[in-house]
Amino acid sequence: MQINRYGKPYATIGTPPEVGEPLPNFTLKSANEKTRITTKDLLGKPLLISVVPNINTRVCTTQTIQFNRASDLVTAARFVTISTNTCAEQLDWCGIKGVTSMEMLSAADASFGEAMALYMPTNATLARAVFIVAPSGKIIYREFMTEQTNEPDYLAALNFIRKFCALNHLR
User: Fold this and answer.
1) Exposed (0-12), middle (13-18) or buried (19+): which is 113, by Cβ within 10 Å?
2) Residues 98-113: what's their mean pLDDT?
3) Global pTM?
């Protein structure tokens, strides 16, 4: 998939999974516990996955803070941010920014980026995206920013996950 950053083209290693497809298998590291997290560990309740290239940039910071605030309002869902930053970088960033509700997961080993086809080998980061996944593991929402310096549509993602939780009587 081709994306741009300040108009310069970059390519991911493939085409990310579509709505209706299952979340692929991958492993991540939890920034807080430094434990291994698998796809299966993330399932069981509605899941919002916020994918950012580098947590230490302006747009990635804004995206993570926005979804961190939202996670306090949609308690029936799990909210995670995934970046290629190390666990130490993520923990430092969370401490500086006061982010406590959003779960930070490190994709530094590229398993997630490869499985989701979001990895960009030219700069060793992930393409910016938002996914919402049903408790069963089926992808039910996705958004890609073809221009990586753009922010996602926060309201659309939050309205979608709220509606999903309400329709499924999840509180």
Assistant:
1) buried
2) 92
3) 0.96
- Backbone φ and ψ for 80, nearest 5 degrees, come out as -130, 145
- The length of the chain, given as a count of residues: 171
Catalytic residues: 60
pLDDT tens per residue across span 64-92: 999 999 999 999 999 999 999 999 999 99
